[in-house]
Amino acid sequence: MTFLLLTVTFVLPSPMAPFPRVLDHAYSPTTIAAGSMPLKPPSPVADWIGGDPERPECIGALNWMLYELEPTDVVASWWDYGYWITTIANKTTLADNGTSNSTQIAQIGEMFMSNETRAIEILRRYNATYVVVFTTFDSNGNDIGWGDEGKWRWMARIAGLNESDYGNSTSWNDKGKNTVIYKLMTYGKERTIGSSPTVTLNNFVPQTPDSYFSQTAGSPKAYGGAIPLVCVYKIKYS
Description:
Elements: H1 2-11, H2 21-27, H3 46-49, H4 61-68, E1 74-76, H5 82-87, E2 92-93, H6 102-112, H7 116-125, E3 130-137, H8 152-158, H9 180-193, E4 204-205, E5 212-213, E6 227-235
Helix pairs in contact: 6-7, 6-8
């Protein structure tokens, strides 16, 4: 068993790489440099940090937040992205990898798993001005699972909610489709692949320049068959 584990980890090649993983890992980009996707694409994933020569129009979500948001803005996101937003975008977040306040993380999870009315109550309590979501999907709009579409169950669990109340591993039910996390991901995904939006946003601004989408509408770029998308929505309280 140990031999097999070591073989898989260090000897067999990584996806899209012709040589052993131990060599591939030596110069593989960090998770953020890979656009939070567990693969090493042949060109940079610009959706978080920008820098793709094939997508000069994409400055990356973190650079957009750095230059376009006010110093006093507060950004709500799942804790995974908190350090990136704090250190690169230089904006205040509600949680990051070092947050020890489990109650606050639970509140963020509840916010994402709530309808807009309840979510706004939570966001107002923290004086949040923007919400960030990250999702991955294929050209047909099918979820890949590397973004928040694969993390919402943890949002529900940490918030003390029953994840089965929102759907199953393959589809959302009506309650799930009314959650903030579903609506923000779905609106961004449908906009990106050129479909007519099937969700209505009442408290989140989807139009530029107030909000940001890392992919060009109707002309997305895929990496290994996966389209990454970072959406930064401005919160509308009234």
